[in-house]
Amino acid sequence: MCGIAGVFTTDSSSPAGRIMERLEDALAHRGPDGRGRHDGAGISMIHARLSIIDLETGGQPIYAEDAALIANGEIYNYLELRDGLDGCVLTTRSDCEPALLLYLRCGVDFTDHLRGMYAIAIHDARRDRLVLARDPFGIKPLYYAETDLGFVFASEPQALTKAGLVVPDLCRAAVDELLQLQFTCGAKTAFDGIHRVLPGETLVVEKGRIVERRRRPALPAGGPQPWGEEEAVHRLDMALADSVAMHQRSDVPYGMFLSGGVDSSALLALMRDLNDAPVQAFTAGFPGAGVHDERDHAKAVAGAAGADFEAVEVAEDDLWKLLPGIASAVDDPVADYAVLPTYKLAAVARERGLKVILTGEGGDELFGGYGRYRRALRSRLLGGRPMYAKGAFAGMDVLRRDDGDWRLGVAAAEAAEALPGRSRLQVCQAVDCADWLPNDLLAKLDRCLMAHGVEGRVPFLDAGVAEVAFRLPDNLKIKGKTGKWLLRKWLEGKLPEARPFAEKRGFTVPVGEWISARGKDLGALVAEQPCIEEICRPGAVERLFTASGAKQGKAAWTLLFFALWHNIHIKGISPGGDVFESLGG
């Protein structure tokens, strides 16, 4: 796990050294273990390293022939790739060196051979071109902009603005999505002119401009397979065990985040079977709050699996103290209140000496776990409705503009993912994998962990697991009101103490409860922020922050997060002190 950035000029001139230094400084938190730089004709690339595999010789850039590679991520099948590179001379034990040699052998199709999470940049001096590639699920981030200077890219958009390469202006369409969905869709970001390299996308850049794009899909083609329960369980067991074994390849200590839910409990069961030493498991809890606290159940699951368990308390004071730093870290904004416990868990894991954490992201998307899937499959007469039919501010009369355009990105994904042969359930899952998964869950995980120099790994988001899970028969994903049915059935046999078929409450962070307790003062402070005055009706914000109810609390949280984010990333105000001080109170 690392940070990468670069500048490829349109006229073959050398990028200014101060620009590259600013890029390095802006990404230093992603790579505290070392820095590297490549300079060529009209191009400079920098690499900030977090050492995970090949601690001694794995520094970057990596060179072969007339090509240079920098990468952020892990290529999990690097050992198998090394064995298959007959005739090639490997000079390191790095997991990324085979990717460069594959590029030299296969061209831009090299990613077809990679199994892992990655954002890769290759300067091919022979062809005078730059190649960027991102993993199919979008686990690792990569951003770019086409400027007067040339083509610029980085692991985080804030690096491009801090280096002076892009002016930090708002993309209004993306802001509307953020407010209503809590994430943004497609290639656009909240920064006007900064775009995402899409999940699975490979870009070819010549003379500072994109000349070719290609896309590698994350999900397998075709509809559900006619597997019976026994065959499906067997296939799933093999795929999960293989993926977790791959994701544990590391030269540094690793642990996992355990909520006690189905996904993280399944992950713990697999790690227990693959490790001789006890697994280190961390769980967040909310003392004294009115939401369900998962610590007791998680502790019981950890005990049954022989794990070393640590409960981490997330209290109201953490909201006020940590949120400005979180808003600073989450530069591609995600108004998901789970950023708070994720950020604190990452800090504790690093304090305990861990540099790698495995998590359960992707389980709901691949196995059909969300209630919105079941609602989307029901008829309207039975209360069914399309996914994301209503935004977070629907019916509140808070926003000045609520014309429904915020749903255009979702609609585009729905049209793109309705491929021949797919079931209605598969289309719903694919829509979530297109935007919600990479632009909310994975962006949140990346920024919150990398802020503390910790690498996050997601074994469910593996091609082998997707090949089985996505193509399960619909009735092995959802039975009645129960989602993720087959994964629950598998877990019941592996770790029955997890009680996978017991009724579970959804994961909730009590931000609404905490905000309403100080709603009068906080609402007035948020309402007076210029970015909030521009998008909200007069008096509506103050009323919202003093109202009760989960929906109102989520909306208030979204405005609070956006106000902090805007001050930091658009106005350039450094986060100082707690929430009230950062907002100027």
In short:
With about 575 residues, this protein is of the alpha+beta class. About 40% of the residues lie in helices and about 15% in strands. A six-stranded antiparallel sheet has the order 2-3-1-9-8-10. A six-stranded antiparallel sheet has the order 4-5-6-7-11-12.
Total strand segments: 17
What is the rounded Rg?
23 Å
User: How does CATH name the architecture of the largest domain?
Assistant: 3-Layer(aba) Sandwich
| Gap from first CA to last CA | 37 Å
What would the average pLDDT be, to the nearest integer?
94
Mind explaining what this structure looks like?
It is a single chain. The chain has 585 residues and is α+β, with helices and mostly antiparallel strands. Strand 4 (62-64) and strand 5 form a beta hairpin. It has a six-stranded antiparallel β-sheet. Strands 4-5-6-7-11-12 form a six-stranded antiparallel β-sheet. The chain has a five-stranded parallel β-sheet with strand order 15-14-13-16-17, sandwiched between helices. The protein has three domains: 2-215, Glutamine Phosphoribosylpyrophosphate, subunit 1, domain 1 (4-Layer Sandwich); 229-391 and 404-498, HUPs (Rossmann fold); 511-582, no CATH class. 40% of the residues lie in helices and 16% in strands. It has 23 helices and 17 strands. The chain is globular and about 65 Å long.
